[in-house]
Specification:
Elements lengths: L3 H9 L12 H8 L16 E4 L4 H6 L1 H11 L3 E4 L8 H14 L2 E7 L9 H11 L3 E4 L8 H18 L5 E5 L13 H8 L5 E5 H6 L4 H7 L6 E4 L21 H12 L3 E4 L8 H17 L1
Parallel strand pairs: 1-2, 1-8, 2-3, 3-4, 4-5, 5-6, 6-7, 7-8
Length: about 300
């Protein structure tokens, strides 16, 4: 899962030409004027649900526009783009935003490589997220850090990113995998990140990896009020051979109490369905997961 970003760039390079050209100031001002970020008219009065597009990565690789149309038609209220978006040209960014607006869905957030938040790239990252209409710029992974000192450095990087993004109305975030919930000595890296980052920085909870690492998602949400503003609704099964291939609702996650904690103390702003693969096609998997999500969330 830590390799998602690299895998995604390799896949999308076939359809999206590489470009590091800065956005023109005229385009930046025109598109940023569309802020502040807000949910579209299609959003329900409850917490909206979107799709992390890594879930449909192969379909997206073949036909991005048709995939986004299919996702919107299923009833998803938004999406989260993952790392390959950074290689889009200015024209592609604008076209994608236009399509999202046409479909009545939003880009809630983006997943980003560590390099996208460094001093060389963060202005481009900021401008692209403004055009897409995103609110959160999420660090998808910090890689294989092995000491608490290294994790404190990650916290420092996130704080710096938050300072650079804040004046534009954007917020930084961090997405966990198993590693962050795996103790180093007597502390989990995720605790280091929570303690040493600004309250404005979102702690995006990946439920499945939290469970696999042996931690309790509900307890984590309750321990960090107001910080769990989005959740990757990915299930996980303890059964041999199943793992992340189970659909939403088929695994070990206690969704009823996760929803209650997220909406009671977590500060949840949006949910994201994520699937790494299942016995069904990508689009059918996304459709089934959304259907079950709505049933469980309503219940």
């Amino acid at each position: 899962m830590v390799e998602k970003a690299a895998q995604g760039r390799k896949q999308w390079s076939r359809i999206l030409p590489m470009s590091s050209t800065p956005l023109s100031r005229r385009s930046f001002l025109a598109w940023s004027a569309m802020l502040p970020w807000a949910l579209s008219a299609r959003a329900s009065t409850s917490v909206p649900v979107g799709l992390e597009l890594y879930s449909v990565r192969e379909t997206l690789k073949k036909d991005p526009e048709a995939t986004l149309r299919a996702v919107a038609q299923m009833g998803y209220e938004g999406v989260e783009f993952y790392a390959p978006y950074f290689d889009w040209t200015e024209s592609q960014i604008k076209q994608t935003r236009k399509l999202l607006d046409e479909l009545g869905i939003r880009c809630f957030s983006t997943h980003n490589d560590e390099s996208y938040l460094n001093s060389q790239n963060i202005d481009r990252t900021r401008d692209m997220n403004l055009i897409l209409g995103s609110k959160y710029v999420v660090l998808a992974s910090a890689g294989q850090k092995t000491s608490l000192t290294e994790w404190r450095s990650v916290a420092d990087m996130l704080n710096h990113a938050a300072e650079r993004l804040g004046p534009a109305g954007l917020k930084a975030g961090y997405h966990n995998h198993q590693l962050e919930f795996t103790p180093i000595g007597d502390q989990r890296p995720i605790e280091i990140l929570a303690k040493n980052t600004k309250p404005s920085i979102m702690l995006q909870l990946d439920v499945g990896t939290c469970l696999e690492a042996g931690s309790d998602p509900v307890a984590w949400i309750q321990a960090n009020p107001g910080r769990i503003r989005s959740i990757h609704c990915k299930d996980w099964s303890r059964d041999a051979g199943k793992g992340y291939t189970v659909l939403f609702g088929e695994g070990a996650a206690d969704w009823k109490n996760i929803f209650a904690a997220a909406e009671g103390t977590g500060g949840i702003e949006y949910y994201l369905v994520e699937q790494e693969g299942s016995r069904f096609s990508e689009l059918e998997t996304a459709r089934r997961c959304l259907q079950t999500f709505r049933e469980k969330h309503a219940g």
